[in-house]
């Protein structure tokens, strides 16, 4: 996975929205074993271990970085799948797929090797989670490091291998202070359906979808931010593009890779990374209207001249700070087109899709 500027691929032509580009990586000065004041505490804490040690986390990320760079150079999803999974791999595969629509300059820039610098690891105690968090910046040779921090999560697979499964990029340089247990370990939210402040980590996906549909209850959802602003523009821009003979509707897509990961913050809230599947339904509003796919959509639907309607799937990976009280902050979001299909009839029906 590599941070990239992603935009909205519209139907007749591509309308783009610039997203925050940032990298990921990190080392932490935190002691993963902690320490106590009494002999009993010393014995207890010395025996406690994290899901990985700081040194192990560093090596895992070094290996991921090496394979990731090699896979990016050759647009090789099979190789990348050995170190990536979940939502972030779905985005990476989609990026490789649509690169044929990019300029030669953009492809070359994406394939430049990069490193994770200023690594900070937040490692839960063994037995409380099977994943850990890294906060860092990306840096390519001869360039300055990314301005904004990435929040990446590496998870242990059933096979025993570790893979990067999700990553989000903040629009702020300052993240909330995370909680530690008595041993100095990060504290995971083990029940993401339960509120850890004003919202649960699982409900964040609904709040992001509300930015597309505008169906959220008054006062709910996220505080206004740069990220909420550009996401709200997407349905408006697409409907303007299709007007006056077409319209776009947005709903939840197939929740294949929707999963939330969260760590508790020191003030009783949580810092979460979550994914959201969004399905766009573009259709003609008159019987004779035809929708023409963008170049990016043609990667999935072929060189078709048009159809009465299309479905387009988008996958967001986002980060949010759930405050102890009040609405959460949407810190950042990245999205990629992961599929598109022409409707099967003039009514815009597509098997397995709810419009």
UniProtKB/TrEMBL annotation:
Q: Where is the signal peptide?
A: 1-21
**Disordered: where is this region?**
29-48
The record's section on Pfam families has: DUF8094
Q: Which InterPro entries match?
A: DUF8094
The taxonomic lineage of its organism, from the top, reads:
Bacteria, Bacillati, Actinomycetota, Actinomycetes, Kitasatosporales
Q: What is this protein called?
A: DUF8094 domain-containing protein
Q: Which UniProt keywords apply?
A: Signal
Originating organism = Streptomyces oryzae
Q: Keyword Acetylation: yes or no?
A: no
Top-level taxon in the UniProt lineage:
Bacteria
Q: Outline the extent of the DUF8094 domain.
A: 48-341
Residue ranges of the TM segments: none
């Amino acid at each position: 996975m590599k941070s990239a500027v992603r935009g909205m691929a519209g139907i007749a032509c591509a309308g783009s929205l610039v997203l925050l580009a940032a990298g990921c990586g990190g080392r932490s000065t935190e002691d993963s074993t902690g320490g106590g004041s009494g002999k009993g505490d010393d014995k207890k804490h010395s025996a406690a271990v994290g899901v990985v040690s700081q040194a192990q986390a560093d090596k895992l990320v070094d290996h991921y970085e090496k394979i990731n760079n090699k896979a990016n150079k050759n647009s090789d999803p099979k190789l990348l799948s050995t170190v990536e999974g979940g939502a972030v791999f779905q985005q990476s595969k989609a990026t490789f797929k649509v690169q044929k629509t990019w300029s030669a300059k953009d492809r070359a820039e994406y394939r430049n090797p990069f490193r994770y610098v200023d690594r900070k690891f937040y490692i839960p105690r063994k037995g409380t989670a099977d994943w850990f968090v890294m906060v860092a910046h990306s840096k390519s040779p001869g360039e300055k490091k990314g301005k904004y921090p990435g929040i990446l999560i590496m998870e242990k697979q059933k096979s025993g291998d570790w893979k990067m499964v999700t990553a989000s990029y903040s629009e702020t340089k300052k993240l909330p202070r995370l909680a530690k247990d008595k041993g100095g370990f990060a504290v995971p939210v083990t029940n993401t359906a339960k509120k850890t402040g004003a919202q649960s980590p699982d409900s964040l996906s609904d709040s992001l979808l509300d930015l597309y549909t505008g169906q959220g209850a008054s006062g709910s959802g996220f505080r206004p931010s740069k990220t909420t602003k550009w996401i709200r523009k997407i349905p408006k821009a697409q409907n303007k593009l299709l007007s006056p003979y077409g319209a776009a509707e947005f709903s939840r897509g197939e929740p294949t890779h929707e999963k939330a990961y969260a760590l508790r913050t020191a003030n009783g809230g949580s810092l979460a990374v979550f994914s959201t599947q969004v399905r766009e339904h573009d259709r003609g509003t008159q019987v004779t209207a035809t929708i023409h796919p963008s170049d990016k959509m043609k990667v999935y639907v072929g060189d078709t001249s048009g159809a009465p309607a299309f479905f387009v799937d988008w996958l967001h990976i986002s980060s949010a700070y759930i405050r102890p009280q009040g609405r959460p902050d949407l810190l950042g979001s990245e999205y990629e087109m992961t599929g598109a299909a022409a409707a099967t009839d003039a009514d815009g029906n597509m098997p397995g899709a709810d419009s």
